[in-house]
Structures are given as C-alpha cells and as structure tokens.
C-alpha cells in the first residue's frame, strides 16, 4: 500500500511492522484501507455465488446445483453483498475521507475504530464457513423470514451470530463518525461548509444507530425461538410470523437508505468537480437527506403488501412511500442542474457518477411502481423486484463506490488511475449491467418468481441472455482489480489537487496523503 | 479562525424551526434561508421539530386514507 511506503519517506517511526501493524493500527487511513480490501474480497465472494446462481439459471431444469444449495446461495449472496461488501466499503470511504475533508487528524475514537474493523473478519468467517456445517448455510433468504428461519439447521445460527457481530461493528463505526463530524472539525469548518459526503454520512450514521439494534433484536428473537422455547414467530405457540416481517422491514427500509445516502454523498462530491461548478442546491440536499432519514421509518410495510393488510394499511404505506420519493427526486434534479452549463469533462470518476444518475433513476422509478399496492401484489416476489433493487443497489451504491474509488485513488496511492482501464471498466459494467438486469423487468412482469432454481420454458431465452450478461458483468469487475493494482504500483504521479476542478481540504494535502495529516488544524478562510 | 459573517446568536423561535423542517420534507431550500437557519437554529429544536413533523406527516396520511376509504 502506498500509504506504507510513504510513511517511511516521512521518517515516521511505528512500533509495529508487517502484519502486526495492520492488526494494531489505529490510523484512520490504515483502517479505511483495511475496510476497502475486506469489502472487495466479500464483493468477489458474493459475486462467485451470484455467478453460480446464474449458471444454474442459464437453462431451465437443474444442471449445476441442487435446489437446497441454490437457496443457500441466494441467501448468502444477499447477506454477503449487503453486510460484507456495500456497507463496509462505505465505512472505509468514511474512515479515509471524513477526517481529511473536515481537517481532523484522525477519527474521534481511534482504538474503537480498530475494533470496529477487526470484528468483521470473524463475522465473515462465520458467514462463509457456514457453507461447511451440517445442513449447509442459511437458506431462508437474506430477509430470514420466519417460519423458515426458525426451522433451518445450524447455518442459521451462524448467520445470526455473524449479523450480531457485524451490527456491533456498524454501531461502533457509526458512533465514531457522528462524534468525529460533530467534534473534530477544523476551526472555521462549520456544518454548513461541510462537504456533502460528510453530511450524508452523518445522517446515515444516525440511521445505523437507530436500526441496527432492531435487526439484532429480530434475529435474537429467531434465535430464542429456535433454541430457548420462545414463540415470538411460531404460530403454534401463539406467536405471529408476520410480526417478524414488520420488525425486519422496520430495520430494512432505513437500511436501503443507509446503503444509498453515502452514495449520494460521493456523487455530490464528484459532479461539481467535473462540472467545475459548486453543487446546485447544497442546502436543499442537506434538508432532503435529513427528511429522508425521518420519513424512511414510516414506509416499511411497502415490502409487505402481499401479506394481507387492511385496505387502510395498504393505502397508508402506498401514499407515504410515494411522498418520500419527492426528496429523492429533488436530488437527481440537483445533480442535473449542477451539470447544466458547467464546463464538463468526463474522466473516469465523472463517467461513473453520470452513469449512476442515469441508472439509479430507473431504479427509483421501478421502486415507485412497486410502491403502488395493486401492482405490487402482482410483481411481489417476482424478478421485477429483483430488477428494482439491483438497479438501486448495483447501479446506485456500487457505481457510486467505483466513482469514489477512481476519484480518490490518486489521494490514496499517489498515482493517477489508468483512464483507459477505468473507462473500459465503466463501459463494460454499464452495458453488461443492463443486459443482466433490464430483461428481469420483463421476466417479472411475465410472472417468473424470484429465489427459484428452475423455471417454466417460456422464460428460457431471457434467462440465457441474463446469465451471459451476468458473467460479463462479473468478469468486468476484474478490470477494476487490475486498475487498482496498477495504480498502487505506479503510474502518472498525482498532484495534491489531482483533478482540475476538485475542491475540498483533502486536496490540500500531498498525494498520497501522508500517514498523519492535519496534526495542526488547517486554516479555513 | 475568524468567520467574517457575524453569527446572530439569538435563537430562532418555533415558527422558523418548523418552516425549515417543512421545507426539508420537500427537499428545496434557498441558500440564503439555509444560511440564516444555520446561524440561528438550535439543533435540538430541529431534531424535535423533525420528529414532530414526522408524526404530523403520519397523522395527515392516516386522515387522507380515512377520507379516501369513507
Ligand atoms: C424512489 C425510491 C424507492 C422506492 C419508492 C422503493 C420502493 C420499493 C418497494 C415498494 C419495494 C418492495 C417490492 C416488493 O417486495 O414487492 C422495494 C424493494 C426493495 N428495495 Fe426499494 N425503493 C426505493 C429505493 C430503493 C433504494 C435506494 C434501495 C437501496 C439502495 C432499495 C432497495 C430495495 C431492496 C433491497 C428491495 C427488496 C428487498 C427484498 O425483498 O429482498 N430501494 N422497494
Ligand atoms: Cu423499502
């Protein structure tokens, strides 16, 4: 890692070297790097599961895996991607960038930061190791609905413990971010001067603190139902399986905002830099993000229209969901207005950011369609929903992560990432992404259920196409790996301000950022 | 570091706080109004107002739903 070599240039003395240095580090940049490598590893693991799923679905009938294993794959793919890849990647960005952006020397609780990260590998071992226990991994879907989750083998227990551990890690990470943003800003860095990324993460951190305990409670209730004789979700004992869905989605809907708000933050840094204009409607953005955080607690049952709700409930959650889409739409408007009449240039980070706006918007619209109760009764549990959430999660969160990675790689490594590889990665990803996920809308509307290893013959052609697209998308991600490795090892030297239009404190320190920055608080005009 | 703009230190009242929160639900706010807010609003009051307006929002939709179903 460039940060390491640079350290020696700086002549800093560190007690530890080699592996111990990474295990004992309390440096926000080291920990950010660890988070990102961890999440990329989990991204590849989840990707292998996805490709195995797509290999099975290439043709109707069973060829590659057995149905039981197929269910384990869909479940673990979701859990690994959500809790292992997307969330830790954003925390990695927060660790690296928030102190640099607000002029702080480190995160507020540096030791707790170390622990937040090092909880994750044990959780990952529990999750991935559960494939090898009797009965295999959890197979109840990433949502872990009762009664299935009450019945599975010990893979389910391992998943529950993994979620407990990752939840503790997230909560500690979130507390760290809140305290850092509120207390460690350089003099003159008022809240209203803060980069958008810090605002979105501040609000995300509050969401995390609010809902991770809810998830922990839900899975703990499953655990006690499984082993300690309670009947929270067991109808035979007087419990209610639908209550599990309410608790899960009370966590789950804010969770989708946890996975998208930091993405909004990253895109809001990049668009102004490459449009060479300040972010249009900075104030509106801050307000909208805050509003989304509150309103996201009032829409959870739009995931449950098919469970048999009274009409009043269906209408309530339908109206609430559509209204919360307003502040989300305002953001898309703001990004477009930022680009309007700017002097645009399309380096790799900007391509990803513009691609994000385009494809995320499609996902937002299909979300609105799912939110219409009578339509959702039809499309619930079909590939239409799979298409929706991959448009918001892959084309939303993941594309924003790539945008951010290409944008800040010069700051992390001291070298400019290869424009050729970055653009190749972008265009391959964009094309294959759409080949993979756009036809899923049609499959869903035609009635193909999700989470099944086999399907009726009339779905065969689209599924073959989707599987080809999926392998293309998966392989395209290796371009990113190559681009990052090349960037770490060498390339054009990056200036302190690596992109012409980039603004913010992080661009005032050298590239790569030295191990210790802002030991003296910077002076803001 | 000295901030050139003098920070008004009188605290904003209930109505400006509510107005800021209400605008946030639409997601639009004029920059100048935002600067005034940032200078005068009490963060705790904003959070309370936010939760309060959130409750009002819920009650409002419940009423609309009742009207629609009536
Ligand atoms: C305009 C904003 C959005 C609206 C109106 C919306 C609406 C919905 C609705 C109604 C469903 C339930 C569909 C069903 O199960 O039948 C759903 C599912 C889902 N949404 Fe969204 N959504 C929006 C944005 C997002 C974002 C930003 C994300 C994540 C980054 C997201 C992630 C998901 C996921 C993961 C599911 C499926 C959960 C599952 O069943 O496994 N959505 N969305
Ligand atoms: Cu939702």
TrEMBL record, chain A:
The chain crosses the membrane at residues 34-55, 75-96, 117-138, 158-184, 196-223, 243-267, 279-301, 316-337, 349-375, 387-409, 421-442, 462-485. CDD domains: Cyt_c_Oxidase_I. PROSITE patterns: COX1, COX1_CUB. InterPro entries: Cyt_c_oxase-like_su1_dom (IPR023616), Cyt_c_oxase-like_su1_sf (IPR036927), Cyt_C_Oxase_1 (IPR000883), Cyt_c_Oxase_su1_BS (IPR023615), Cyt_c_oxase_su1_dom (IPR033944), Cyt_c_oxidase_su1_bac (IPR014241). It comes from the Bacteria. One of its GO terms (cellular component) is respiratory chain complex IV. Keywords: Cell membrane, Copper, Electron transport, Heme, Iron, Membrane, Metal-binding, Respiratory chain, Translocase, Transmembrane, Transmembrane helix, Transport. It is found in: Cell membrane; Membrane. Cytochrome c oxidase is the component of the respiratory chain that catalyzes the reduction of oxygen to water. Subunits 1-3 form the functional core of the enzyme complex. CO I is the catalytic subunit of the enzyme. Electrons originating in cytochrome c are transferred via the copper A center of subunit 2 and heme A of subunit 1 to the bimetallic center formed by heme A3 and copper B. Belongs to the heme-copper respiratory oxidase family. This is Cytochrome c oxidase subunit 1. It comes from Thauera terpenica 58Eu.
């Amino acid at each position: 890692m460039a940060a390491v070599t640079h350290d020696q240039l700086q002549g800093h003395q560190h007690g530890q070297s080699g592996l111990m240095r990474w295990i004992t580090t309390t440096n926000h940049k080291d920990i950010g790097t660890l988070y990102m490598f961890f999440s990329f590893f989990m991204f590849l693991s989840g990707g292998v599961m996805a490709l195995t799923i797509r290999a099975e679905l290439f043709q109707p009938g069973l060829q590659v895996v057995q149905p039981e294993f197929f269910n384990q794959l869909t479940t673990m793919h979701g859990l690994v991607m959500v809790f292992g890849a997307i969330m830790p990647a954003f925390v990695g960005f927060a660790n690296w960038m928030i102190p640099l952006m607000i002029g702080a020397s480190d995160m507020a609780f540096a030791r707790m930061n170390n622990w937040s990260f090092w909880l994750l590998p044990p959780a990952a071992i529990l999750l991935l190791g559960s494939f090898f226990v009797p009965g295999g991994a959890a197979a109840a879907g990433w949502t872990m609905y009762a009664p299935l989750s009450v019945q599975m083998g010990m893979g389910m227990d391992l998943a529950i413990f993994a979620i407990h551990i990752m939840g503790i890690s997230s909560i500690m990470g979130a507390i760290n971010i809140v305290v850092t943003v509120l207390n460690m800003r350089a003099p003159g860095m008022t809240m209203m001067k803060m980069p958008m990324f810090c605002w979105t993460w501040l609000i995300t951190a509050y969401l995390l603190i609010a809902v991770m305990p809810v998830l922990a409670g839900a899975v703990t209730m499953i655990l006690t139902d499984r082993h300690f004789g309670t009947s929270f979700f067991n109808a035979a004992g007087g419990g209610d399986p639908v209550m599990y869905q309410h608790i899960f989605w009370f966590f789950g809907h804010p969770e989708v905002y946890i996975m998208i708000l930091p993405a909004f933050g990253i895109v809001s840094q990049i668009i102004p830099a490459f449009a060479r204009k300040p972010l249009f409607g900075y104030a509106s953005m801050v307000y909208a993000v805050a509003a989304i955080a509150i309103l996201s607690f009032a829409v959870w049952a739009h995931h449950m229209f098919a469970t048999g709700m009274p009409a009043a409930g269906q209408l309530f959650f339908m109206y609430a969901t559509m209204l919360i889409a307003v502040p989300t739409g305002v953001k898309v408007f703001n990004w477009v207005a930022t680009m309007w009449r700017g002097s645009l240039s399309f380096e790799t980070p900007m391509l990803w950011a513009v691609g994000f706006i385009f494809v995320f918007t499609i996902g937002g619209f299909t979300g609105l369609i799912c939110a219409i109760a009578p339509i959702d009764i039809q499309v619930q549990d079909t590939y239409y929903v799979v298409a929706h959430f991959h448009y918001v999660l892959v084309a939303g969160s993941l594309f924003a992560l790539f945008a951010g990675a290409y944008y800040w790689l010069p700051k992390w490594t001291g070298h400019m990432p290869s424009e050729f590889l970055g653009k190749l990665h972008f265009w391959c990803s964009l094309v294959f992404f759409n080949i993979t996920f756009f036809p899923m809308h049609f499959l869903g509307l035609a009635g193909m259920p999700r989470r099944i290893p086999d399907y009726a013959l009339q779905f065969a052609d689209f599924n073959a196409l989707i599987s080809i697209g999926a392998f293309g998308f998966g392989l395209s991600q290796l371009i990113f790996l190559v681009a990052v490795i090349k960037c770490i090892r060498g390339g054009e030297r990056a200036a302190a301000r690596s992109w012409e239009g980039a603004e913010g404190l992080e661009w005032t320190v050298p590239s790569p950022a030295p191990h210790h920055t802002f030991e003296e608080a910077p002076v803001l005009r | 570091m000295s901030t050139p703009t003098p920070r008004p230190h009188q605290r904003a009242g209930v109505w400006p706080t509510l107005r800021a929160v209400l605008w946030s639900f639409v997601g639009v706010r004029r920059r100048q109004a935002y600067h005034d807010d940032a200078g005068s609003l009490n963060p705790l009051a904003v959070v309370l107002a936010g939760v309060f307006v959130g409750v009002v929002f819920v009650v409002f939709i419940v009423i609309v739903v009742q009207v629609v179903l009536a």
